[in-house]
Specification:
It contains 13 helices and 19 strands. It has 2 domains: 166 residues, 3-Layer(aba) Sandwich (Creatine Amidinohydrolase, Chain A, domain 1); 241 residues, Creatinase/methionine aminopeptidase superfamily (Creatine Amidinohydrolase, Alpha-Beta Complex), CATH 3.90.230. The chain is 36% helix and 18% strand. It starts with 7 loop residues before the first helix and ends with a helix. By secondary structure, the protein is of the alpha+beta class. A hairpin with a 2-residue loop joins strand 2 and strand 3. Helix 1 packs across helix 2.
Length: 417
């Protein structure tokens, strides 16, 4: 079993590039993800903040990076980590040491968290801007210690402007380095193994959660740390709900099952959707519906090349989807495809499943996107989505998930061995 990882050089290069972008009159504060309470003294499963990982490689909570660029190129890089506490180690295991943090990140100046504020006050002198980013998606949640720190700094340092780091970090993260592509490929290989195993075991009477359990086993057994996102295992009409994750129903003879899943490998996860007939054979109607979605999938992939924005690609996908679905009789007017296709064609993919990137961002070589057309006929209990992961190249694209079966014949062959 291969064990891939990112080197400290990867993170050092990212920090150097970021320092050049923000300039010597600014500094950046990037913080690790906090823990979230599940209930009582039990915590939710923790996962590192993607941006913090991108610049440090540190997979530990309660850490901070302060990056202070210099005009002579001798940038100040300060990493702050929790102090090693023998009592905590009795309960949670070995804690990260300064030496280990340097080895992982390439940052020589590693300090404990108790010196963060003092260091910030020292390095901000003569600087105009503090670049930082915190989660903006859930405005009703309680403020975290990171939010409170930024609020305190605004009051204590009123002349230091706080601005969004994402205007610099997002364009960097969109273009994937070769070593990042290798991690995504590794994830996709494990996802493919999991889905092919599911195909050989799928039969009427199984529960959706039993399929989820098989995915979980395959991911963990083959080296993934966790699911990339809550898996969707949706039989029959459940597949017409886009984010169905209950996975509690029984799979019935004659139904289809839609599986939308990803296994996270070293912080990177593929995002794949496949649809299988529960009994191993597509009905004629199911074949018609499935082939229409597959035709959209392949036609759109054939048009992907660098130089377009997501907005432009979405418009192109709408044209392709409308034409194919109208020809097959699912809609009367090609402009009405959203009545049965529901959603746009895809999204950026990287450290986040719905990765950073603006809709008007020009897609260039190194960008990874998903292609996932759908067809949802609720009254017939049919929900189909076929999702691939695609790398944009200099001349076109490479389907990273091409080894995961999606043709009707190969699916039926594998399911009836």
């Amino acid at each position: 079993m291969r064990q891939l990882s990112l080197s400290s050089d990867f993170f050092s290069r990212n920090r150097t590039a970021l320092a050049e972008k923000i300039g010597s009159d600014s500094l950046a504060l990037i913080q690790a993800a906090p823990h979230a309470i599940r209930n009582s003294d039990n915590l939710h499963q923790w996962r590192q903040d993607s941006t913090f990982f991108y610049y440090t490689g540190i997979d530990v909570p309660d850490c901070s990076l302060v990056l202070a660029p210099s005009s002579d190129g001798k940038n100040s890089e300060l990493l702050f980590i929790p102090m090693v506490d023998p009592e905590k180690e009795k309960w949670g295991g070995k804690m990260l040491t300064k030496e280990e943090a340097t080895q992982i990140s390439g940052i020589k100046a590693v300090h404990t968290n108790d010196s963060l504020r003092q260091a910030l006050f020292r390095v901000q002198k003569w600087r105009e801007t503090l670049y930082c980013d915190l989660d903006e998606f859930y405005p009703d949640l309680s403020l975290t210690p990171q939010h409170l720190l930024l609020s305190d700094l605004r009051q204590r340092l009123p002349g230091l402007q706080q601005k969004k780091l994402s205007f610099f970090s997002s364009p960097m993260r969109i273009r994937k380095h070769p070593e990042e592509i290798e991690l995504i490929k590794e994830s996709l290989g494990i996802i493919g193994t999991a889905l092919e195993t599911v195909m050989t075991k799928l039969r009427p009477g199984l529960m959706e959660y039993q399929i989820e359990a098989e995915l979980t086993f395959q991911y963990l057994y083959n080296g993934c740390e966790r699911h990339g996102f809550d898996p969707i295992v949706a039989g029959g009409k459940n597949a017409t709900a886009l984010h169905y994750i209950k996975n509690t129903d029984q799979l019935k003879d004659g139904d289809l099952v839609l599986i939308d899943t990803g296994g996270e490998y070293r912080m990177y996860s593929g995002d794949i959707t496949r649809v299988f007939p529960v009994n191993g054979r597509f009905s004629d109607r199911q074949k018609q519906c499935y082939q229409a979605v597959l035709d959209v999938n392949k036609a759109f992939i054939g048009e992907i090349k660098p130089g377009s924005s997501w907005n432009q690609l979405h418009e192109l996908a709408s044209q392709i989807t409308g034409e194919i679905y109208a020809k097959q009789g699912f809609i009367d007017n090609p402009n009405n495809h959203l009545t049965v296709s529901y959603h746009k064609i895809g999204h950026f993919l990287g450290l986040d499943i719905h990765d950073v990137g603006r809709p008007d961002e020009i897609i260039g070589p190194g960008t990874v996107i998903t292609v996932e057309p759908g067809l949802y006929l609720s009254e017939e209990g049919i929900g189909i989505r076929i999702e691939d992961n695609v790398l944009v190249t200099e001349t076109g694209c490479d389907v990273l998930s091409k080894e995961i079966p999606k043709e009707i014949e190969e699916i039926e062959t594998l399911m009836n061995k």
